[in-house]
Amino acid sequence: MFFLFAYVRFSVYAFGISHSCCGLRNRAMFPTRPLVAKPARAAHRHRTGSFARKSLTPLKDLEMVFDCFGARKKVVIAMAHIGALPGSPLYDADGGVQKLIDGVMSDVEKLQAGGVDAIMFGNENDRPYVFKGSPEGIAAMTAIVQAIKPSLKVPFGVNYLWDPLASVAIGAVTGASFVREIFTGLFASDMGLWQPDCASAARLRATLGRKDMKMLFNINAEFAHSLDQRPIALRARSAVFSSLADAILVSGPITGQPANQSDLRDVCDVIKDVPVFANTGVNIDNVRDILGMAQGVVIGTHFKVDGNTWNAVDASRVKRFMDVVETLR
């Protein structure tokens, strides 16, 4: 655990990032806590971190999902897909890390102009995927997020596929508000047997002084089949109870494909003290139904040119989608 953090910290230096850029100036080793908005009203002061917990009122009836979003309802987290990182087969060594920064900066500008509520940086282009991030990949993603951070006008999160420890480490040192990963469960997947280690990820977050950074639990992994035969709603309840999930995400079978709406409904029916998000396949045609159940969505593919995951962001698609969302808030 110590060596992972030590490496990520070193990686910031390796790509020319200073202590002050990382927000490490005033805390010897760890970043300052990101600023968050105050709760909108006194009735919401019984909170742990950024989410309402142990409330007698169902979360769907409350105004806030994240404190950093203020009173905004029906949150849209947009994916900023970074190009293939160093060490992965599709990495463009000629373009280097600067090309990756330029590409994701262009996408982020379009997403923010379109009115999304948050940005989540992800390494979806690092195919084939791995369960343990490479040193060069973790270093590069840390540097890229740091380079983009001064341009951000909305909260941000990170997800290093499919490594919970790398996600937490990068999120912690860059000042992210949240991280997403597969933290719990047991899956047969394209990458082999999938056994995430939630306990180590949660302990790393605490060790790095970032208990304020929320962990978003994707409970049904893409590219995989759960070997846990419990119903998805029970797995969701268990993740909140035993693994301290700050939010539950429900996914489809593959990137860009929607979650089964009956699964999403079942989870929303039983999870009342943390937010539930649809994690894949959200589009302008199904968002009304989805946000009728869930507190928010994570969206990537639908915002891309021609709805293709691997294309650049299409600003007009973002604007049309967010116009619809505004009518649902």
The helix content is: 25-40%
* Spatial order of the strands forming the largest sheet: 3-4-5-6-9-11-12-13
So, the CATH homologous superfamily? Aldolase class I
Instruction: Output the structural class.
Output: alpha/beta
Question: What is the beta-strand fraction?
Answer: 5-15%
Q: What's the CATH first level?
A: Alpha Beta
Largest sheet: 8 strands, parallel, barrel
Q: What global shape is seen?
A: globular
Low-confidence stretches: 1-64
- Report the CATH architecture: Alpha-Beta Barrel
Helical segment tally?
9
The N- to C-terminal Cα distance equals 41 Å
**Total domains, how many?**
1
What's the alpha carbon Rg, rounded to whole Å? 18 Å
β-strand number: 13
Which sequence of SSEs, written as H and E, runs from N to C?
A: HEEEHEHEHEEEHEEHEHEHEH
CATH topology: TIM Barrel
Please state the average pLDDT score: 86
